[in-house]
Amino acid sequence: MATATLCFSSAKNPIKPSKFRPPKSSLSSYNKPNSSAITTSLSPTISPFPSSTRFGLVKRLNPFLCESTSTVSTSTTNYEFLDGPTELELRLELGKYAINSTRDIFVDADESSLIVRVQHSGSLWTLMEATCLYDKIKPAETIWYLDDDQLVVNLKKHDPELHWPDIIESWESLSVGVMQLLKGISIYLVGDSSEINEKIAQELAVGLGYTPFTTKELLETYGQKTIDSWVIAEGSDSVVDAESVVLESLSSNLRVVVATLGGQLGAAGRADKWQHLYAGFTVWLSQSEATGNIFELAIVIVVEYNADEDSAKEEARRNVQDGSQAYTNADVVVKLGGWDPNYAKSVAQASLSALKQLILSDKKLPGKKSLYIRLGCRGDWPYIKPPGGDPSTGGDNSRPIL
Q1: Domain boundary residue among 134, 157, 180?
Q2: Which residue among 46, 177, 221, 381 has the highest number of C-beta atoms inside a 10 angstrom radius?
């Protein structure tokens, strides 16, 4: 199991396509045909550090959590970003800052953060403060140089195979990046609140270009009655069984986001009803009794197929005290410090961040989910048995193929 925190950037404007202008001079090169460029903007801020502070050309920072900082916005600094096969190139407009010497520029890089400051008029100004990069970099290999009115920063990717939609981890970059990582595999939202599941499903569907479904709506349309009246008339077990049938029907679909029923009324709340939920990536939206800002979301990634599966599940139970034990079957857990519908996109962003980390921890996961679907969602996740075998029996047929 791994933990992370929801990240926020200081970007103010949406990402827009931009024609990348090649540098006039270069300390590194890119394979241009396989590269993509975007441009966006950040708000520079007055630095709290004294003007005499010197960080050096490139200096590693102590690790810190990806979180937003209080800043005073004064104007807008544009930047261009280029994603190459192994390297990243960031171009920052110096604009009004008259830089007479490289000694007036300070670039601080860590594995997951980047801060660029300039000395101007006796003060340190922050051109960019990305406290949560899209993925890890190799800070020791960071270089920068001046190119006319631009500061060019070259960063080495930690994972050369990963495509970076942007330099920062944001809603826009995660929507593009996670959509590529998922390879069409669907997402299921589980948890005690049907309302929260539905809200986040809508946000994720819009961001990923998936089709949203809510099992509550499907059930009420089919049964021609509300869930509450269904429970009164036939009992909660009848609703659970009916939702299981709906989930079975949806399990063969790709590129859908499914909001399930919350609590014990839903199939996800029953440990023996997860057979078809395993067809997609499941996100447990867990409400915490702790008070606090909705932005303080803790993400707990549960990788159930790891060798240390038992300890991972136990850690999930310790971290999420309240809720059905069946929810610990989820691939990732997003623990909410509170709930406000106005922050639904923030919760959706946290979900995408967790899914990105999960898939990057094992890039074969989407293919494994696809195989599980093709073999009929027999309930043998994560230890998929050979075709024709009976997952419920032991012997040689129970040996997993993945």
Answers
A1: 157
A2: 177
Establish if 284 belongs to a structural domain.
yes
* Residue 338 within any structural domain of the chain: yes
Predicted TM-score of the model (pTM): 0.76
- Evaluate if residue 41 carries a pLDDT over 80: no
Q: How far is the C-alpha of 93 from the C-alpha of 75, rounded, in Å?
A: 12
CATH number of domain containing 92 = 2.60.40.790
Q: Kindly report, residue by residue over 47-99, the tens digit of the pLDDT.
A: 332 222 222 233 222 332 333 322 333 344 589 999 999 999 999 998 888 88
Domain coverage including residue 113: 79-157
Q: Are 184 and 255 in contact (CB under 8 A)?
A: yes
Flag whether 145 is in a domain: yes
143-147 vs 58-60, strand pairing mode: unpaired
Q: What is the DSSP string of 54-122?
A: ---SEEEPPP---------B-S-EEEEEEE-SSEEEEEEE-TT-----GGGEEEEE-SS-EEEEEEETT
Same domain, 151 and 202: no
| Whole-number pLDDT of residue 272 | 94
228, 329: one domain: yes
Average pLDDT over residues 121-146: 93
**39 with 78: CB under 8 angstroms?**
yes
What's the CA dihedral at 153, 159, 163, 165 to 10 degrees? -50
Structural tokens at position 291: 């008070």
C-alpha–C-alpha distance, residues 216 and 193, integer Å: 12
| 8 Å CB contact between 125 and 95 | no
In this structure, are residues 173 and 133 in contact, taking their beta carbons and an 8 Å threshold?
no
180 and 289 share a domain?
Answer: yes
